[in-house]
Amino acid sequence: MIEKGIDCGSLIRSMGEAARSAGQVLAGASSARKAAALEAAAAAILGERDAILAANAEDMARASANGLSPAMLDRLRLDLARVEAMAAGVEAVAHLRDPVGRIIDETLRPNGLILQRVRVPLGVIGIIYESRPNVTADAGALCLKSGNAAILRGGSEAMASNRAIHAALVRGIVSEGLPEQSIQLVGVTDRAAVGAMLTAAGLIDIIVPRGGKSLVARVQEEARVPVLAHLDGINHVYIDAAADPAKAIDITVNAKMRRTGVCGAMETLLIDRAYPDPKALIGALIETGCVVRGDAAVQALDVRVTAASTEDWDTEYLDAIASVAIVDGIDGAMAHIARHGSHHTDAIVTEDKPTAERFLAGVDSAIVAHNASTQFADGGEFGMGAEIGISTGRLHARGPVALEGLTTYKWLVRGTGQTRP
Amino acid sequence: MIEKGIDCGSLIRSMGEAARSAGQVLAGASSARKAAALEAAAAAILGERDAILAANAEDMARASANGLSPAMLDRLRLDLARVEAMAAGVEAVAHLRDPVGRIIDETLRPNGLILQRVRVPLGVIGIIYESRPNVTADAGALCLKSGNAAILRGGSEAMASNRAIHAALVRGIVSEGLPEQSIQLVGVTDRAAVGAMLTAAGLIDIIVPRGGKSLVARVQEEARVPVLAHLDGINHVYIDAAADPAKAIDITVNAKMRRTGVCGAMETLLIDRAYPDPKALIGALIETGCVVRGDAAVQALDVRVTAASTEDWDTEYLDAIASVAIVDGIDGAMAHIARHGSHHTDAIVTEDKPTAERFLAGVDSAIVAHNASTQFADGGEFGMGAEIGISTGRLHARGPVALEGLTTYKWLVRGTGQTRP
């Protein structure tokens, strides 16, 4: 085990150094060249679809034999449509607006100095993910487009698929003259490689974990490199007394039931004690197939409501289950969210503007919505064209993160010989 | 020692919780109220100058008895002029533009949703500093103005001074109705308190160390909370073949000798092998009292040049010493900086625009300057009105950091009942 650790340490070190060199080239690559490289990568994925599907079949056979759950098998599985979607995703990233070189602001100082803040890549991004092989293409493309080198570490069960996708990606970018090591795949299944990435300060600038809660928790716990991640999406919808009842039902049902497994799904519904028709709202939610666990007041409204335990208010179900509480107006709602929320996405439904503004200002979450479903928490829906993840941290980037969040800035000082008095 | 650690842990925990509550109030406080509170704090510092000076005399007597160095005693010492400057500094921060509430960008989506990114405070800032008592007022004011709660931990040798300044600050802000715990001072001298702050993830959002290299190194090493800091300022000035000789001399002398102890001071001078008059440049630097350590080519230019060792290229002297190397044009200069620089501030002197642009684009430092002294690396000089520090990290904020760097943003989603298809 110690020997394995040492091997992984030196592996990640040499990958990190190669990534740093590649990153220096990528930082200076033009938008046109990066776009051409990604177009070539997308074409290579399509062109090598047979090899990718064959590799995936290998992974699937091994995973079935190892008794992976049907849900995990589905995440691992590729078919022609999924490979085509993957290539289309890379193609879409190729055409996104390049953040690198953008001038954030410019100031002329009284001494004649011109100061510009200009976006530059972060450098080297480490992506740690689980069984979905499409992340290889998706994350690799986002890193490259933003001028960053990527070190990808996918799940061991998807190793053959990831290798095939990675080979296609690299073939594409090399054909346009960008470095082979712009996107590297950690080729060992040893879990010590993850530990080595998490402690590779100075070699990897930021780690993005993409996967379930246990992966993200481990990453956040062990990392000595900054992490861009969210752990929980315990999202609330608050139905105010002044809510439009039709919007209340539409938004609640959509926020909970459109897709229950996404991080933007509502987990807790808070209803103002003064809301006129809570019974219809809860009934509508139950009729979509949602299990409702409520406090005493909610249980009194509908016999199908079961009792919520104290843990329910802190639970991210990611399932067709909702906890529902009656609260005393917006103050009760905000106090509940401050205590139980996870700073991801929370929404208010109300026709009362000042109440909406109080909620938008007072709720400390990455995304706060008024009269809109929490399921809009997504980079695509935010017009970013893609998403590397959603951050519930407060530093650097918050909420959906795409290309801009993978950059930093530097200050350019343009003078004519100025010295400081 | 274990008992002390436990005490400090629970002390910092309770201070962190109090700070979180105060921060929630501060996040919602209007710019006018924060400004009024800081004006009152500035007035209180002036009004309580006798108590502050008496407390400082106590610290000075103890420090002298303990044999502190003259440099440290000078940093610790307050007099009427320094107290007045401290009050003026708080007053100046009161009138800075408030970043909180500023809309970074706004997007109208095809579905009618309006997305706004709005600046909000980071939350709770921990400041760890050494003997200068003015940091108590300065850092406390910047945190409050940006809507953050502050936990200040100054040097034990300045404890009486810090207590007196802190008491005045708090008196001012409380008089304007803001929470007493907006700015807290860690009142124990036990070094374990620093350790407790560094590991207070979830209670403290960011740590800003202000002090010498050993403090910053310890903070970066031990912290589990994000840190905003720079460790070294190994800054370079590169004199290109096409440099104007008068600018070359002016900028080099200013960058090195204006103040040798600041982090923006030049430490290494790189001269293009094709630069016409290196002898005059080195002579001018030596004549200002600078010790020059050079490579063989530089030694050959002037008998007063001593030999640079390999460590010199990686040394931040913070003194009237410079290392000087002859390099092969801009590529040699950029390679030297990439290898030995600390990503702080580097400058080029040249009249050739394309060369300047290559340097500005290619040098990976927080600040890259053309025909300007490296000593402009300062929040005040950048028009920020103040500075909490200079960051050489890549995440969140880079270069001089003032109010904006103490904020994050949240996304506001304004809808009219939208649900996600």
TrEMBL record, chains A, B:
One of the record's GO molecular function terms: glutamate-5-semialdehyde dehydrogenase activity
Recorded catalytic activity of this chain's protein: L-glutamate 5-semialdehyde + phosphate + NADP(+) = L-glutamyl 5-phosphate + NADPH + H(+)
**Mind listing the UniProt keywords for this protein, alphabetically?**
Amino-acid biosynthesis, Cytoplasm, NADP, Oxidoreductase, Proline biosynthesis
Q: In which pathway does it act?
A: Amino-acid biosynthesis; L-proline biosynthesis; L-glutamate 5-semialdehyde from L-glutamate: step 2/2
Q: Which GO terms describe its biological process?
A: L-proline biosynthetic process
Entries under Pfam families matching the protein: Aldedh
Report the protein's function.
Catalyzes the NADPH-dependent reduction of L-glutamate 5-phosphate into L-glutamate 5-semialdehyde and phosphate. The product spontaneously undergoes cyclization to form 1-pyrroline-5-carboxylate.
Q: What is this protein called?
A: Gamma-glutamyl phosphate reductase
